[in-house]
């Protein structure tokens, strides 16, 4: 079989456990698939031009890319509703409490160890989940040890930086990245679900500096207090080329982190 055909076969192989049968999952684990990927998302406003599913759709896609790059991994169903109280000023946005999100992750992961999984990698397609994940990581790890190693990717600042670098390198639009419904997220959705994008409604939102102080204000007062249309950044100039670059960059961040921490754990066993 040619190398190109092998790559196509790998891309088409089903990795989502919800689309596999129980026996197929058992066979995959027996063949060495001991890693589970747990993606977290959100159902929240994304400006006037993107659907509320943006973060969960993003998490779905990243999880498959991460699993393929790591190898020997299967993908759990995305936790589609996340921690989004700062978006509740916009109609339709949903949110769960931090304790609820933690409990869901614990319940998901507690099901894994008995089936032969050895580690779980958590990440989020929604930036707002990251403070909650960083907080519950030690409790989750303690609750699941030693049966299951927990690896939580928690560097949301690195994700924003990767988006800026992607938009800058492709189109000189790094300044359009604000972290929400901006050129990066819109470009990602153009890759994943272009039919869900309303380009005629796209408009810039808050264009100032997105730093820790700003994020604290947005979390406390709500995104609607700092951006009336719910956008942080500017979607102008969005393209599939930027979307592919952003997806690749974030995939690499999580894969490199998971690989390094998995190797570190192996050295201590």
From TrEMBL:
Could you tell me which InterPro entries the record lists for this protein?
Creatininase-like_sf, Creatininase/forma_Hydrolase
- Which GO biological process annotations does it have? riboflavin biosynthetic process
Q: Which cofactor does it need?
A: Zn(2+)
Entry-linked Pfam families = Creatininase
Does the keyword Magnesium belong to this entry?
no
Superkingdom: Bacteria
One MF term in the entry's GO annotations:
metal ion binding
Is Methyltransferase one of the keywords UniProt gives this record?
Answer: no
Keywords of the record, alphabetical order, are: Hydrolase, Metal-binding, Zinc
Name the family: Belongs to the creatininase superfamily.
Q: What is this protein called?
A: Creatininase family protein
- Organism annotation: Bradyrhizobium uaiense
């Amino acid at each position: 079989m040619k190398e190109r055909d092998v790559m196509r076969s790998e891309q088409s192989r089903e990795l989502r456990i919800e689309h596999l049968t129980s026996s197929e999952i058992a066979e995959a684990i027996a063949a060495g698939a001991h890693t589970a990927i747990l993606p977290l998302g959100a159902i929240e406003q994304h400006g006037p031009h993107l659907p509320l599913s943006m973060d969960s759709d993003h998490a779905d896609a990243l999880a498959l890319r991460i699993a393929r790059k790591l190898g020997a991994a299967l993908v759990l169903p995305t936790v589609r509703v996340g921690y989004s109280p700062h978006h509740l000023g916009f109609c339709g946005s949903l949110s769960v409490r931090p304790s609820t999100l933690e409990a869901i992750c614990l319940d998901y992961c507690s099901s894994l160890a008995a089936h032969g999984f050895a580690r779980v990698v958590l990440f989020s397609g929604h930036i707002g989940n990251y403070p909650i994940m960083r907080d519950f990581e030690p409790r989750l790890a303690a609750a699941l040890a030693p049966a299951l190693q927990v690896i939580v990717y928690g560097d949301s600042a690195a994700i924003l930086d990767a988006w800026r670098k992607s938009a800058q390198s492709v189109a000189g639009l790094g300044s359009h990245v604000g972290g929400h419904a901006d050129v990066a997220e819109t470009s990602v959705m153009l890759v994943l679900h272009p039919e869900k994008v309303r380009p005629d409604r796209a408009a810039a939102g808050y264009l100032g500096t997105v730093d820790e102080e700003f994020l604290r204000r947005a979390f406390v007062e709500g995104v609607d207090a700092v951006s009336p249309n719910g956008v942080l950044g500017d979607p102008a100039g969005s393209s599939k080329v930027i979307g592919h670059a952003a997806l690749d960059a974030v995939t690499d961040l999580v894969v490199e982190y998971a690989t390094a921490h998995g190797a570190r754990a192996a050295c201590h066993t």
